[in-house]
Amino acid sequence: MPLLTAEIYELLQTKNLMLVFDTNVITQRGFMPLCQQVQRINLIRTKPQIKLYVPAVAHAEHLFHLAQQYGDSYNLEFIRENLVIHEIEILNFTQQEAEYCAKLLQQKYNTPSEWQAAKKRRCLECVGLPDDYSLAAGTGGQCGAPNDWLIMAQAQHGNMILVTEDKGKHQEFSLVLNVARYNNLKESLNRILTELTNLHQTNV
Length: 204
Fold this sequence. Notes:
Layout: H1 5-14, E1 17-21, H2 23-26, H3 31-44, E2 50-55, H4 56-70, H5 76-85, E3 88-91, H6 95-108, H7 112-126, H8 148-157, E4 161-163, E5 179-180, H9 182-203
Parallel strand pairs: 1-2, 1-4, 2-3, 4-5
Helix pairs in contact: 1-9, 3-9, 6-8
């Protein structure tokens, strides 16, 4: 169950937080303005601080889409500079996280057939077909495992808040304890920034 706006607000107000963003959030036009909001909050108050992360696997997918979209005008150096400017860190997938991810998957899917069936259901969902689609006779063994499993493991292993718009029936992020929706996070940040700005003006 995703965190409510009030719950996100409370967490942002009481402890240092690490936010990790899914691909479907970093591709939104409002992502960089949201990061700017976080920067302003961190500048006004010394603590608690908010850190921003993008998983390397999500970053790779985003770069691929940008390269397709812009073709010859695609500028990797501009993207790198923007990451630095907005204080966004690319989160590499470590050996410890790989081991943690494998452990979580083994706990959820005890046998190869369960794992294959899960991948098959995910593939059917992606193209809008029901789980029991009769013409899909394969076991799912040849279906690829989504990057979402890797992102899930990073968020959970690092005790981060995962910001995602994934709302699928078989969403991989069900194993993550702290999941936030983009709009709920945005509302919480807006509230905090407004309160900090008003307080600062009162003290001037």
